[in-house]
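so my prof wants the structure for this chain in the tokens format not the other one, which i didnt know existed until like an hour ago. anyway here's the sequence
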Amino acid sequence: MKKILLAEDEEVLRMLVVDTLEDEGYEVDEAADGQEALDLYEDGKYDLLILDYMMPILSGLDVIKKIRSTEGENRVKILMLSAKSQQAEQDRVLEAGADYFMSKPFSPIKLVQLVEDILNES
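here's what i got, hopefully its the right format
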């Protein structure tokens, strides 16, 4: 079973995404802020991280930078979710080390499709 870490500070959205992904057979850990996401990441092995851009304590961008600066050759795949959909923001996120970007609002069905595509790439 593929394991996903979802970091999203909006509780209702987090619950919706977790339920949707679990219904598709994924194991999902959830974090309500960037520091919690980083702590969970350091304690577990994930196939994919889904991070919100704007979160308390550490932003999704901060989390990506910390992970990318310390991980070895087994690079985890990272999908950034953001209401900031301008091309400059997308470029900034990808330059920081995210592999994928999805703008909010999004369809849970499209998110699941993207997650399946990402996890079936390797």
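also thought this was worth mentioning. The chain has a mean pLDDT of 92.
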